[in-house]
Design brief:
Structural class: alpha+beta
Strand content: 5-15%
Helix content: 55-70%
Number of strands: 11
Length: 803
């Protein structure tokens, strides 16, 4: 009885036999996603939605006051050489600048120039018209006025720092960063794939698909933001994840299709085999990534929910692309997928002899598995040790590169006017009739800060009231940097004083927010939620692997090995970024901490991505075991056969992630370095030493309690009479192709069924079938490829290798 083919095979077959339809539908899908996403726009996370703890409550209280926020610019006039200021010249420049600013249509009001406490600078406050959302696009005339005034007065320097100017300055710097990253990543990925495939079209297909996946995911993410608001980092994460998994999934599929063609399969047969094996692996890998990323929702925080949504969307789109449009592209290109050939690289990729490198690398794990396991695990644990001293903090202005001009201007401003630097936001909500009592309470609070070294005193804080008199806010500055103990102590004092100050006011609610408060509360929230997220990811990943492989050993080893590689990568992250030795190498300023949101995000991403390699490698090992190999031979054959594609995929991922380590923002540096280190460790140490040593040591217990084919378990494919009998040529029914009957390639989970052994050959199959190879009774090897062909037959009509 012919069993129904797996869904991956049915989809691939339809796409391969209707290539233009599949390609056209994909193009329409990507274009529709981009159009709908652009039309809907992006709904960004508001302050009311993003905060947690008391800082989040302060943000919600402030938001309920519906304050009209106007973009504010601070124009700082100081000596060009950083020394003593010529007050007369500075005053003259300030008066001239006031006139220029007031004449601009973008300016609503200009304040009075204020001297700094040390007399070395003047501060001119300017309020712009409009809202704060797009102030960076309207601030250029103000910047031009400041630059012209500076040029007209020798010996002074004019800096402009504020809502629009700071966003514009950082945006331009970061925009250049990402543009540079894109310009480097695409050629670098193409170069790596050229080395892998030795042909231009084969190298270009994965990159093209990955880029289309990123575009579609960005559009879908914009639509999803109207359900779950989006953080500004989502597009960057989509680019990072999309290029990595998009290329990897296509790479898995394309390498397997090419491998089967080299064994003599027709294009359609090779596509179907790739769909049943690598296609199934892609589905499993994508599912594990999605399951891992879904764990971020349990963090119950808007930023994590946004990152999870974007990551899930781009991974799902990448899986869809590899299953639908990729088979169509391979069918349409046909033999041209291996054109134009890069001469030397092509010869290297077409070597049919077994690599000498991988057996040598695997020998310690196969010959002395226990010793190899102890040494490799010990090395990874030693690398993980620094993670025990991990410190977390929210990123802030102190984490930015001091080479950025706007950051240098911010430093000069906060040095002269500390109250413009680190600021705590006090928010109080009470009935409107209690407004007078609230103002009195806040004035009492401010009086307690006077004389305290923990607070700034260069300016008197201003109490603001909402239009309905229900909400009052006041900003309290501190001269200490956000990462300092002084900033944290000043926050603790305010949080102790505010309840005391508003206690006499009936029905009053108060909270202290700001950047320092957000960092403290966010870190505390993560510590509370992390066990739930980690537990969810571990449990769901274990269940997924158990269902796929039907083996407790495989499921448990997957969990343990991924935990090991994640811990080692955390150790490397701490060693690099909590110390100063790598500052010059990576061009960053160490804050002595890791960005607070990074460890949890890295954990779920690494757990998902590491499963790509684990599923792919273990699937190949299980294939070899199905064919009758003993455990040692199955491990050697499975890893050797998958080493090329796993190494290639890992190199692509490491290259893409490492590029993010060159960006200016410290969180992206840490993200890139952390991911690159983890993938490198996983592909090299875990897959070459730990995994093969563990599976060799476990022996037949690897598959417990699941059962491999009883006719093959424990026997090498050529090692028994029964196995040899399975290799005897079988008659092919009339009208069937020589590839019509194949052994199982899938896992023992319903995916490993035959391709319909006695189906009639379609016209499309006849078109693909290489006529010169049709030997219906030729013996076949254990993977369905004909044996015993002469060298001339293997080369085909024109002497070229049969592709």
């Amino acid at each position: 009885m012919v069993r129904k083919k797996p869904a991956t095979v049915r989809i691939a077959r339809w796409s391969a036999t209707h290539p233009w339809s599949a390609i056209g539908l994909w193009v329409v899908f990507v274009a529709l996603c981009l159009f709908l996403g652009g039309a809907a726009g992006t709904n960004k996370i508001s302050d009311e939605e993003s905060g947690v703890g008391e800082a989040g409550r302060a943000g919600r209280i402030t938001a309920s006051g519906h304050f009209i926020e106007r973009p504010e610019e601070n124009v700082l006039i100081s000596a060009a050489n950083g020394g003593k200021l010529d007050v007369a010249t500075a005053r003259k420049a300030a008066e001239e600048l006031v006139g220029k600013m007031k004449a601009l249509p973008e300016v609503e009001s200009v304040g009075t120039a204020l001297p700094s406490p040390d007399g070395r600078a003047l501060l001119l406050p300017v309020t712009m018209k409009g809202d704060t959302e797009n102030a960076d696009t309207r601030v250029q005339p103000l910047l031009d006025a400041s630059a012209a005034t500076e040029k007209a007065h020798e010996g002074i320097r004019i800096d402009q720092i504020g809502t629009g100017s700071t966003a514009k300055g950082l945006g331009e710097t970061l925009g250049e960063d990402f543009k540079k990253a894109e310009l480097i990543s695409l050629p670098l990925t193409l170069l790596i794939l050229l080395v892998v495939f030795g042909a231009v079209i084969a190298a270009g297909v994965p990159v093209l698909l990955a880029m289309s996946c990123v575009g579609a995911a960005i559009g879908l993410s914009a639509l999803a933001s109207h359900v779950l608001p989006e953080t500004s980092a989502v597009s960057n994460v989509i680019l990072l994840m999309g290029m990595a998994v998009g290329v990897d999934y296509s790479l898995f599929y394309l390498k397997r299709e090419r491998e089967e063609r080299r064994k003599g399969a027709s294009h359609l047969d090779a596509i179907e085999i790739a769909a049943e094996t690598s296609g199934h692996t892609v589905v499993v890998s994508g599912t594990t990534v999605v399951v891992s990323m879904a764990g971020l929702y349990l963090a119950q925080e808007a930023t994590f929910a946004s990152l999870a949504t974007g990551s899930i969307i781009v991974v799902a789109v990448a899986v869809l692309a590899s299953l639908t449009v990729l088979p169509a592209l391979l069918a349409k290109f046909g033999r041209w997928v291996d054109r134009p050939k890069v001469p030397l690289l092509w010869l290297l990729t077409m070597r049919s002899n077994e690599s000498r490198l991988w057996p040598v690398l695997l020998r310690p794990a196969l010959v002395r598995p226990v010793l190899t396991l102890v040494v490799s695990v010990g090395a990874l644990l030693a690398l993980a040790l620094p993670a025990l001293d991990m410190k977390l903090k929210q990123p802030g202005s102190d984490d930015l590169s001091r080479d950025i001009p706007v950051v240098q201007a911010m430093d000069r401003l906060t040095s002269a006017f500390p109250s413009k630097g680190t600021v705590h936001q006090v928010a109080v909500r009470a009935p409107a009739e209690r407004a007078g009592e609230v103002e009195t309470a806040l004035k009492t609070l401010l009086s307690r800060t006077e004389g305290q070294e923990l607070f700034a005193h260069d300016q008197t804080p201003t109490i603001r009231a909402s239009a309905d008199k229900r909400v009052h806010t006041v900003a309290v500055g501190t001269p200490h940097s956000p990462k300092s103990d002084g900033a944290r102590k000043s926050l603790e004092l305010l949080r102790a004083w505010v309840p005391e100050a508003i206690a006499p006011v009936q029905d009053a609610e108060g909270a202290v927010g700001g950047k320092v408060a957000q960092g403290v509360d966010f870190t505390g929230h993560l510590e509370d939620r992390m066990p739930w997220v980690v537990g969810f990811v571990l449990l769901l990943t274990f269940a997924t692997m158990l269902i796929i492989f039907r083996s407790l050993a495989v499921a448990l080893s997957a969990i343990l090995l991924n935990l090991l590689s994640a811990a080692a990568s955390f150790g490397a992250l701490v060693a690099v970024f909590q110390s100063t030795w790598a500052e010059g190498l990576l061009d960053f300023h160490s804050s002595g901490a890791v960005v607070s949101w990074l460890p949890l995000f890295l954990f779920v991403v690494l757990f998902g991505l590491s499963m790509d390699y684990h599923v792919f490698v273990v699937s190949r090992i299980r294939e070899a075991a199905h064919d009758g190999a003993n455990v040692r031979d199955a491990v050697r054959d499975g890893i050797t056969r998958s080493a090329g594609v796993v190494t290639s995929a890992a190199i692509v991922m490491v290259a893409v992630f490492a590029i993010f380590g060159t960006l200016s923002m410290v969180e992206f540096k840490q993200l890139g370095v952390g991911l690159a280190a983890a993938i490198l460790l996983d592909a090299v140490v875990i897959r070459i030493f730990v995994l093969p040593a563990l599976m060799t040591a476990l022996g037949r217990w690897n598959w417990w309690p699941g059962n491999l084919n009883s006719a093959h378990r424990g026997q090498h494919a050529a090692g028994s009479d029964e196995t040899r009998q399975l290799r005897l040529p079988q008659p092919v029914p009339a009208g069937a192709t020589q590839y019509g009957q194949r052994p199982s390639y899938g896992l023992d989970s319903g995916y490993g069924q035959e391709f319909g052994g006695q189906e009639q050959t379609s016209s499309r199959e006849q078109e693909y079938a290489p006529q010169e190879h049709q030997q219906p009774y030729a013996p076949q090897d254990s993977y369905g490829a004909p044996q015993g062909r002469t060298q001339q037959e293997q080369q085909g009509h024109d002497g070229r290798p049969d592709l």
